[in-house]
């Protein structure tokens, strides 16, 4: 019987964790989302620099920032809603 290595089970474990209900409020997941948005931001800034200020990259930057803000807002609303639900359960 072959033993699975940590590298083989890590992606499966990550996707199983992400697809589990309630994982969107986990701090590790939120950090990963923020890191991805930051990486995308820096890539778009670098591409805007390389193309000498192509307007398309500035529009993509604006869209990316709006998407990042909307994700942050949605997570904040989820936290607020879950705290209200737990408060009602205790009453």
What does this structure look like?
Helix content is 80%, strand content 0%. The chain has helices spanning 6-18, 27-50, 55-90. The chain has 3 helices and no strands. The mean pLDDT is 86. It is an all-alpha fold and 91 residues long. The protein has one domain. The relative contact order is 0.08. The radius of gyration is 19 Å and the shape is elongated.
- The chain-level structural class is mainly alpha
- End-to-end separation in angstroms reads 53 Å
Number of H- or I-type helical stretches: 3
Strand content: under 5%
Main β sheet profile: none
Q: Give the total of beta strands.
A: 0
Number of domains: 1
The helical percent reads: over 70%
Low-confidence stretches: none
Average per-residue pLDDT, rounded, comes to: 86
Write the layout of secondary structure elements.
Blueprint: H1 6-18, H2 27-50, H3 55-90
Helix pairs in contact: 2-3
Report a brief summary of the structure.
80% of the residues lie in helices and 0% in strands.
Protein traits:
91 residues, mainly alpha, 3 helices, elongated
